[in-house]
Amino acid sequence: MDPTHFIDELIAREGGYVARSDDRGGPTRYGITRAAAAAHGWHGDMARLPRELAARIYHADYWVRPGLGRVAELAPEVAGELFDTGVNMGPAAAAGFLRRALNALNRAASDYPDIAASGAIDDAAIAALRAFLRVRGPAGETVLVRALDALQGERYMALAEKRPANEAFLYGWLANRVG
Containing H/E element for 18? Predict the structure, then answer.
């Protein structure tokens, strides 16, 4: 599956150049941090980061590297949710949410075995996803996306409670990332 539409939607949501002193990520353009840009060879002014480079970074670091193509073959909307979560919270957090949700939805391992709650999107996670979708049918994808959204929303709440400066971002996170 070609993730271009997920990348385009994300870039539109992230907007252009942003430099907020209370954002630990520092200046961004299209949601790309200076560190991510530098890892891909960009050492110029972040306000001038080309959109095409941002799209390549998203594709390489947040779609290909975490293995979302494998997820998209089975459940494209789940892959899109994991992509968005991975961009905002890191691919490891997104993978962990998937693994936790699949475990919680397997009816005490009666539908398929539990998998380690942390880890990458590996063969075990794909097998669990395949089994979940086989048992739950087409509606299962919608329910799984809702479970992922719930975990993401809870994490945003915890981040705001732990660091009051994050309260400035909470409304936008919930409005634009969850649901």
Answer: strand 17-18
